[in-house]
Amino acid sequence: MIDFTAVNLQKIATHFVGNKLRDEGVKISSGEVNIIEGDTKKYLLKYFLSSFNDNEKFNFTNPTELSLNAVYILIGRIFSNTDSFYENSVELSKHLYQSSTHPKVNGGEFTICLFENIFLDGVETNAIGLFKTEVKDVFLKFDSTKDNYTIKYDNGVNVGKLDKGCIIFNQRTEDGFTVCIVDSNKSNDTQYWKDDFLNIRPSADEYHFTKNFLSITKDFVTKQLSDEFEVSKADKIDLLNRSVEYFKTHDRFEKETFEEEVFNNPEMIKSFRNYDEQYRENKNVDISDNFQISSQAVKKQARDFKSVLKLDKNFDIYIHGNKELIEKGIEKDGRKYYKIYYEEEK
User: Fold this and answer.
1) Cα distance between residue 271 and residue 205, in whole Å
2) What b/e sequence results for 267-281 when a residue is b if at least 16 CB atoms lie within 10 Å of its CB, and e otherwise?
3) Measured distance CA(329)–CA(226) in Å, rounded
4) CA 26 to CA 165: how far, in whole Å?
């Protein structure tokens, strides 16, 4: 949990970073931005920080060694000596430019901030924020005159929509710091912010373990199960519901207990274990078989677990509970049907 209630913005610098493929260049500002108190600062903090709450945590990484991660090194220099803030903000901008080679990357303002008095999971810390503005909105301005209005337009930033953001907390230095990110563009072909510029990996914590194990279960049920077992779509939905229910009703995850409660079938459990092993190897993910469950990760992942049985274009059946109350069959003339039992109509 991140608490920004008492946050203070100590330093801020903004530079323009373009698309390197289009030779748009980097425009370096002459110095730090003067921090203006009042409403401007309030809206600035809202723009930078409101998208961060229960975000998944990451750490800086590098295929060879952590000391070769450029952002990790530059951030460490600022934490060690805040007087080096401006010069390292310039180096961060140059590194972002070198990473901005995809044709879909838009140039924009790159802002670096130094924050203090942030609480991460109850521990007070300082942090550095990196923010990229890539999309400008058109705003209409209604200005009152003596007896009428003038209407103009202007281009600006929507304070409720952060394009790309990253907050690096001054914790777990040896592990690559604790990092949270925001990226409004979910397209796989423009993941330069996360992969090329920051080069981060998910932290080995309960959020990461919970998220990944739910993903493994969902993929197994939706993609693999039908290849080995006779299961209906209602059966699959029931298994997905039971998976989410396990994570919602337990504080700790125990893999064997999970398998028994969800699948309750030795052959299916064996198949799941094989799929789990292959998934971890192919995706290069490391997951513990015993961990504290993250309620934030469960809440986020549960949205992707579909409980709707779609029948042609006529009916959608929402299955939330006991699968024994729904029965599938085929009429003599070949028409398929579902029979649903209930006690009370609401």
Assistant:
1) 26
2) ebbebbeebbeebee
3) 18
4) 19
Q: Amino acid letter at 13?
A: A
pLDDT of residue 267: 94
What residues have CB less than 8 Å from 113, skipping those under 6 apart?
A: 9, 11, 12, 48, 128, 129, 130, 131
Task: Look up residue 140 and give its amino acid.
Answer: L
The amino acid at 16: F
With beta carbons less than 8 A apart as the criterion, state whether 32 and 147 touch: no
Helices 233-249 and 295-302: angle between axes, nearest 10 degrees? 160
Distances in whole angstroms, Cα of residue 288 to Cα of each of 212, 213, 285, 291: 10, 9, 10, 6
Joined together, the tokens standing for residue 33 give 């931005």
First to last CA, the chain: 38
What is the band of 343 on the pLDDT scale with cuts at 50, 70, 90? confident
Place of tokens 């990092």: 179
Closest CA to 154 of 142, 140, 144, 143: 140
What the block records as the tokens of 4 is 């920004």
- The C-alpha atoms of residue 255 and residue 213 are separated, in whole angstroms, by 10
pTM (2 d.p.): 0.78
d(CA 172, CA 346): 52
Which tens digits make up the pLDDT trace of 215-267?
Answer: 999 999 989 998 999 888 888 888 988 899 999 999 999 999 999 999 989 99
